[in-house]
């Protein structure tokens, strides 16, 4: 098969970015960063549902998740529900495959000269660092994959429900509306599975709800701020496809 048509090349590019960003999110997500510290502002220290001293400590995976949902909405707009579902299932399979390969890599016996390294003036055990970065717990892996699939399904369904009401107008409403709902589901599902069901942590529902709400607040704000980028990408694609082809694809995708 060759990618001779504009439609096939566009789907290849969008699908590649979709899959790449999802896998990147899983592996960079092990780093937890402070939003306030990154912005150079004082921590908020929120008290929510009886859980004190909450602030915006986020997984670095939030860097790419907004891009995933933009790709979801764009693919949904031009190619329809079936393509998004196929890519979502394929991505979940590839994430699982990536974790299997990483797990196998962790079991390899490290070379003696590689284990102890001086990195930026710090003596590090590279094998322990490798395991610490890539060795995410099974509960977190399962939670993130399930949250991804459930969030994607919700995003697709809500997108088309809104589109049936608005038609081709109000792209911001169906794209942002579907994203803020799916991000909400994603925020709570992954925490519920990884930390509430996981006996190792034994979090209370108040802890899950409070941290989920803080995480979702951040994702909600980012989803709103990403709306101009959605229109920018939409405009670039329309220019690439041409007005007539773009309209035909959008019409076919809505069936």
UniProtKB/TrEMBL annotation:
GO cellular component terms listed in the entry, alphabetical order:
plasma membrane
GO terms, molecular function: transmembrane transporter activity
Superkingdom of this protein's organism:
Bacteria
| One Pfam family here | Vut_1
Keyword terms, alphabetized: Cell membrane, Membrane, Transmembrane, Transmembrane helix, Transport
Which segments cross the bilayer? 54-75, 87-108, 128-150, 171-197, 217-241
Localization, UniProt: Cell membrane
In terms of InterPro entries, this protein maps to:
YhhQ (IPR003744)
Q: What is its main location?
A: membrane
**What membrane topology does the annotation report for this chain?**
Multi-pass membrane protein
Q: Which family does it belong to?
A: Belongs to the vitamin uptake transporter (VUT/ECF) (TC 2.A.88) family. Q precursor transporter subfamily.
Q: In UniProt terms, what function does this protein have?
A: Involved in the import of queuosine (Q) precursors, required for Q precursor salvage.
Official protein name in the record: Probable queuosine precursor transporter
């Amino acid at each position: 098969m060759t990618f001779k048509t504009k439609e096939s090349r566009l789907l290849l590019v969008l699908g590649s970015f979709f899959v790449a960003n999802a896998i990147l999110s899983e592996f960079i997500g092990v780093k937890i960063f402070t939003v306030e510290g990154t912005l150079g502002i004082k921590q908020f220290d929120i008290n929510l549902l009886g859980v004190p001293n909450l602030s915006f400590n986020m997984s670095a995976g939030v860097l790419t998740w907004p891009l995933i949902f933009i790709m979801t909405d764009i693919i949904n707009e031009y190619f329809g529900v079936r393509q998004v579902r196929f890519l979502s299932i394929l991505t979940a399979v590839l994430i699982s495959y990536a974790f299997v390969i990483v797990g196998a890599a962790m079991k390899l016996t490290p070379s003696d000269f590689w284990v102890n390294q001086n990195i930026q003036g710090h003596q590090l055990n590279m094998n322990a660092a490798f395991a610490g970065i890539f060795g995410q717990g099974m509960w977190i892996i399962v939670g993130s994959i399930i949250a991804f699939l459930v969030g994607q399904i919700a995003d697709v369904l809500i997108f088309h429900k809104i589109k049936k009401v608005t038609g081709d107008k109000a792209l911001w409403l169906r794209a942002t509306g579907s994203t803020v709902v799916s991000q909400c589901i994603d925020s709570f599902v992954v925490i519920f599975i990884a930390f509430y069901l996981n006996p190792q942590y034994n979090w209370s529902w108040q802890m899950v709800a409070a941290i989920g709400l803080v995480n979702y607040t951040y994702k909600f704000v980012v989803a709103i701020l990403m709306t101009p980028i959605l229109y920018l990408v939409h405009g670039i694609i329309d220019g690439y496809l041409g007005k007539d082809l773009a309209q035909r694809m959008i019409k076919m995708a809505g069936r």
